[in-house]
Design brief:
This protein is α+β, with helices and mostly antiparallel strands. It has 10 helices and 12 strands. It starts with a helix and ends with a helix.
Length: about 300
């Protein structure tokens, strides 16, 4: 690398980082790189002249002073290698977030600390916004009365579930995440992994799916669910959202109704006498079974 390229590289580093040299004896700032680019990027609001010779901790947020001092000492003793983050108060009274590293050097024949730090306020604000968004999403996610699964659109893997899902299927929330579809299904066609993956992929292609599914709880209990599959984007990534409702009571009611109707149909068809039905208003109608029709026809022919 040529000398000119090295100089340009160093200039780029200085523009990217606030670089300062601190006296370990007086704790005062001895040197600080300064440029118009750097001033705009950091937002400190202080000039080089305002900071040189001053206490290096004077612009640190009061609650962070102790942590900054401890982390700096650890880095100088090589007990810490990763950067540390803290807040400063700029000239306008605004709070900014800083990421810093320090190293021990000799400056003009005396021990000093070379510190480099960069403004990470925007990143911290984004992180806080994401945390708030995640908290809101999680609150809604767990408040609904249906089980919710978040699936990988390619593999069908279960990436996340809500509390209702854990309750419905009898799993601890931590154990429910990462379960395979077959563990939660009857396991026999058409209620098996192959058909579940087919439906998930169809939903991932933009075609919503609504169907009934034979489910299985952790203790082996079988029950019926209604599944609504839709494509969704969560955290900027494509996912398939499954909203699952327990319909066992409805299925049992339908079964009981069918059995009752079949029982009535059997009695009706085997009956030798006609049936009369009366309503609350006094209206009546009569129905006869096949057996009665047979005997009636026979009597007429006699």
């Amino acid at each position: 690398m040529t000398l000119r390229k090295k100089a340009l590289l160093l200039t780029g580093i200085i523009f990217l980082f606030l670089i300062g040299i601190l006296s370990l004896a007086t704790k005062a700032l001895l040197f600080r790189s300064f440029s118009e680019v750097e001033s705009k990027s950091t937002g400190s609001g202080y000039s080089e002249g305002e900071l040189i010779g001053s206490d290096s901790l004077r612009i640190v947020f009061p609650a962070d002073v102790k942590t900054v001092r401890e982390n700096a000492v650890k880095m100088l003793k090589k007990e810490r290698t990763s950067p540390y983050e803290y807040r400063i108060i700029n000239k306008n009274g605004e709070i900014r977030w800083i990421m810093e590293t320090v190293a021990s050097i000799t400056y003009r024949g005396k021990r000093a600390a070379l510190g480099s730090f960069m403004d990470i306020t925007e990143r911290r604000l984004m992180e806080e916004a994401l945390k708030t968004s995640e908290a809101s999403y999680r609150a809604i996610f767990n408040a609904v009365n249906d089980a919710i699964f978040v699936h990988d659109p390619e593999t069908g893997d279960i990436l996340d579930v809500n509390e209702k899902m854990a309750e419905m299927y009898g799993y601890a929330l931590e154990d429910a995440r990462g379960l395979k579809i077959e563990a939660l299904s009857k396991g026999e066609p058409p209620y098996d992994r192959e058909n579940a993956l087919r439906l998930i992929k169809e939903a991932a292609q933009g075609t919503p799916r609504l169907f009934e599914w034979a489910a299985r709880a952790k203790d082996g209990r079988r029950f019926w669910v209604e599944v609504n599959l839709k494509r969704a984007f969560i955290g900027g990534r494509e996912r398939v959202l499954a909203v699952v409702r327990d319909i066992t009571a409805r299925k049992n009611a339908e079964k009981a109704l069918k059995e009752s109707e079949q029982k009535y149909r059997t009695i009706f068809e085997d009956a030798l006498n006609p049936f009369s039905f009366w309503t609350k208003t006094g209206a009546a109608w009569t129905q006869t079974g096949p057996a009665w029709s047979f005997w009636s026809a026979r009597k007429k022919n006699c």
